[in-house]
Amino acid sequence: MLLAYGIAVGLIGISAMLGMAAIIRADSDASRAVIGDLLFFAAAGVFVPIAALSRSAVTFDVALLATVLGILGTLALGQMLTRGRR
Q1: pTM over 0.85
Q2: Buried/exposed code over 19-29 (b: 16+ C-beta within 10 A; e: otherwise)
Q3: CA torsion angle 38 69 12 35 (round to 10)
Q4: In whole angstroms, how far apart are CA 74 and each of 16, 36, 47, 52, 70?
Q5: What's the rounded Cα separation, in Å, for the pair 85 and 78?
């Protein structure tokens, strides 16, 4: 089971590295903002395997709160980019 957690954290780390490379190549602020959301959710996703390994309910709560706050931030970004249009 420890191997599965290590693989999960490794894959999340690879996606974060690719996201950082994409930020460098991005040509618009909107693209950079969306990739920033990817990096935020990758960081929040690292909390889940850590919580499973430590068997800590508090760490799961941190991951859930970070995800909810990240979704709200993404919705606000969408509103700003579309200037309030639906």
Answers
A1: no
A2: beeebeeeeee
A3: 10
A4: 17, 10, 20, 27, 6
A5: 9
Tokens 């979704």 belong to residue:
71
User: Do the beta carbons of residue 63 and residue 51 sit within 8 Å?
Assistant: yes
pLDDT at 86 over 70: no
Phi-psi region of 61 (alpha: psi -120 to 50; beta: other; left: phi over 0): alpha
CA 50, CA 35: separation in Å to the nearest integer? 23
Whether residue 14 is predicted with pLDDT greater than 90 in this model: the reply is yes
Question: In the numeric block, which tokens belong to residue 76?
Answer: 């606000």
C-alpha span between 32 and 79 (Å, rounded): 16
pLDDT tens digits, residue range 32-61? 888 888 888 888 888 888 888 888 788 888
pLDDT over threshold 80, residue 78 = no
